[in-house]
Amino acid sequence: MKRTGWVLGLAVLGLLGLALTQGMMGGYGRMGPGRMGMGMMAVYPPEAKPIPEEVAKARMEAYAKRLYPGARLKDFMAFSQNYYAQAVDEKGQGLLELIADRYTGVVSPEPGPNMMWNTRFGMHGSLQAPVRYRLEEARRLAETFLEGFLPKAQVLEAGAFPGYYTFDFGRGAVEGMLSVNAYTGEIWVHTWHGPFLGGHGE
User: Fold this and answer.
1) Average pLDDT over residues 20-29
2) For residues 39 and 26, is the Cβ–Cβ distance under 8 A?
3) What is the distance in angstroms between the CA of the first residue and the CA of the last residue of the chain?
4) How far is CA 123 from the centre of its chain?
5) Which H or E run includes 50?
6) Counting CB atoms within 10 angstroms of each CB, which of 123, 130, 155, 166 has the fewest?
7) Could you give the CA distance from residue 89 to residue 167 in angstroms, rounded to a whole number?
8) Do 132 and 184 contact (CB within 8 A), yes or no?
9) Is 22 left (phi over 0), alpha (psi -120 to 50) or beta?
10) What is the CA radius of gyration of the chain?
11) Phi and psi, residue 14, nearest 5°
């Protein structure tokens, strides 16, 4: 009886592992075979071409307006894995960050700090604790981190969002992006973008 239970347990664990693997890799769902879902990993045919930037912008703006009718896009950027943009309100204050898959055009909230630290649109919204780190303090934390992470890199541009800040960084030109938690000072590097290709306009 014990042996039967042990074998059954192993079988259940195996099936669970398979399900998790298929979920992470995208299976053969609507995003296509191998699609992970947030611009992090994909399998494409060799003839695959990115969707035009204007199409991505329109989809991202429509998505943002469904969450906040007065939203507009700012700092649209193209990376090898996805398009990126900030959604801001009528006063230019940051609401959230969005990405669009460069090949499928699927728009989603950016993963990482945007989902976990955004106190308005994230998973842990409505945090009432006082902010510990203001923008300039967060910038200094980012600069300290970059000394070891990417020597000679500098913070190039900043954006403030509910509960955190996002900074572009690089050695003269944009090479990546990181965020700083406004309450804890923790750093989160945006590793899902891939190489920066251009952009940075309204």
Assistant:
1) 31
2) no
3) 67
4) 14
5) none
6) 130
7) 19
8) yes
9) alpha
10) 19
11) -65, -45
pTM: 0.77
| Interstrand relation of 164-170 and 187-189 (parallel, antiparallel or unpaired) | unpaired
Answer whether residue 16 shows pLDDT above 80: no
Query: To which residue do tokens 């842990």 refer?
Result: 124
Evaluate whether 77 touches 200 at the Cβ level (below 8 Å): yes
- 196's tokens: 């920066």
What residues contact 78, with CB distance under 8 A and at least 6 apart?
53, 84, 102, 196, 197, 198, 199
**Closest by CA position to 166, among listed 82, 57, 88, 86:** 86
- Per residue in 118-153, pLDDT (tens digit) is 999 998 766 678 899 999 999 999 999 999 999 999
Residue 13, H or E segment: helix 2-25
Token representation of residue 166: 């996002």
3-state secondary structure of 103: coil
Q: Which of 117, 72, 81 is nearest to 99 (CA)?
A: 81
Strand partners, 79: 196
